[in-house]
Amino acid sequence: RLGGRVVGRAARRAGAPHDGRATPALPFGSRAFSDSPMGFMGAANLGGFDERRVQVTEYDTGGFEIRNDIYVPSSVILLSNSVFLWRPQTVEDVTLDSVRIFTVVHPRPEYVVLGLGEHGAEVRLTEIYFALRDEGISVEQMDTSNAIHTFNILNDEGREVGAAVLTPQPRGDEVRDPFEALWPA
User: Fold this and answer.
1) What's the whole-model pTM score?
2) Rounded distance between C-alpha atoms, residue 50 and residue 58, angstroms
3) Looking at residues 126-146, what average pLDDT do you find?
4) Per DSSP, which regions of the chain are E strands?
């Protein structure tokens, strides 16, 4: 529900402690959906749900709810039609290699939003900015909340967009390495 208080369904499903103040993300329409590769550079594909574009419908301090369906207690990479688990947990973990997926997927995003936690990064990630710009991809870095809203709006417009978003404020009880939960040793 937009406007007003939203109870954190996603946080309750994940069993996370919750104060009842989850933040809604903007709902948007549907578009064509396709599959993409799994397990590339620290990302595991959670996409391919059905024939609608990806949207983050809700988020809380430690994770994201994708299309009112899947709660991901981890940082994520979002593409127009796919969602990937993403290993970085802090701004210091974000490297050029961790976002290189945007240069090899098809269709390639024309615009990438970096959501760097609750307050964003104090310094510009210039190595990432210049490397993606050289690949023809525009990059903007901001806090996670604005990155989610920007991604949802551009994706709803049918633009080829990508986002790499850190959890707004890691709780400490989320899975440190999301791949351990998927493939335990």
Assistant:
1) 0.69
2) 19
3) 95
4) 23-24, 56-60, 63-66, 70-72, 76-79, 82-85, 111-115, 138-142, 161-165
